[in-house]
Amino acid sequence: MLKHHTFKISGIFLGIIIVVLLMWSSVVFGLTKVSTQDVINSLFHFDGSNQHIIIQDTRIPRALIAAAAGASLAIAGAVMQGLTHNPLASPSIFGINAGASFFVVLGVTFFGVTSLEGFTWLAFTGAAIAAIIVYVIGSMGRDGLTPIKITLAGAAMAALFSSLTQGMLTLNERSLDQVLFWLAGSIQGRDLDLLIGLLPYLLVGWLLSLLIGKHMNVLAMGEDVAKGLGQRTILIKIFGALTVVLLAGGTVAIAGPIGFIGIVIPHIARWFVGIDYRWVIPYSGLLGAMLLLMADIGARYVIAPQEAPVGVLTALIGVPFFIYIARRGINE
């Protein structure tokens, strides 16, 4: 664990360097051979060749989207775990991703939505509705909101939205062809315009997460203690929920429901920097970007010459970690 303030700052800069190197690797590695010199030439001396087109239209957007999506999912998971005091909290486990996906497929199936703007607002709406339903169900009963109740509520809503999504897809083969690969979680073939259109929402989500970090430290001591110290806990929870909706909804709109990053990464970040959310959140963002970039590079080779959805790779990494966290939570 990095205990000294200087080490934590150094870790941030090291993380940025690693993310940049992984983005460069994402541009260079793939079934089409691309050299470092090809990348430099495509940026400064574009000649319209096949390699230069692949670099600018496919590889560079893919690297940027992977970094942004990985960071967003990890930060959303860290915020959810901090607000709910639940080590299993994440957009995928709590049904946020499933709700966003359901609304996107609903729009494609019944309303013919194909635009980025349409996908974006459908994803945000679905994420928000899923979050509200899970919170309300998890708060029912005499004990109010508890980690186990909100986990069960999230799992139930994730299953419900996933079933409804699959039901719609069986009724419309055209929609199935359009969204099946996307539903598995993929950044293959995504256009840079998708990221540019969603970047303002993601930036707001990132900024909000950093602003509420120190307030989440107070909230972690217990709601009664936080209120006694003068914290407006309702306001912090609202901003936290808005952060999750913006980051999870935006990521689903651009890359589909990629799972497990929101569970795995916050725990790794806390192992590095402790429980201070002023550090957990930025470390989660950097580590999440690293994980999704590495998973995306690996997805190009595991079943070559075909390509696996990156969501499959993150699931293979995340499921054992999820089991470990669940068992540790039960034993404690």
Automatic annotation (TrEMBL):
Compartments annotated for it: namely:
Cell membrane
Biological processes per GO annotation = siderophore-iron import into cell
Q: Which InterPro entries match?
A: ABC_BtuC-like (IPR037294), ABC_transptr_permease_BtuC (IPR000522)
Report the membrane topology from the UniProt record: Multi-pass membrane protein
Broad class of where this protein is predominantly found: membrane
Please name the GO terms that the record assigns under molecular function. transmembrane transporter activity
What cellular component GO annotations does this protein have? plasma membrane
Q: Which residues form a coiled coil?
A: none
Keyword vocabulary terms for this entry = Cell membrane, Membrane, Transmembrane, Transmembrane helix, Transport
Q: Which Pfam families match?
A: FecCD (PF01032)
Q: Where are the transmembrane segments?
A: 12-32, 60-80, 92-113, 119-138, 150-172, 192-213, 234-265, 277-295, 307-326
Family stated for the protein in its record: Belongs to the binding-protein-dependent transport system permease family. FecCD subfamily.
Q: What is this protein called?
A: Siderophore ABC transporter permease
Its lineage opens with:
Bacteria, Bacillati, Bacillota, Bacilli, Bacillales
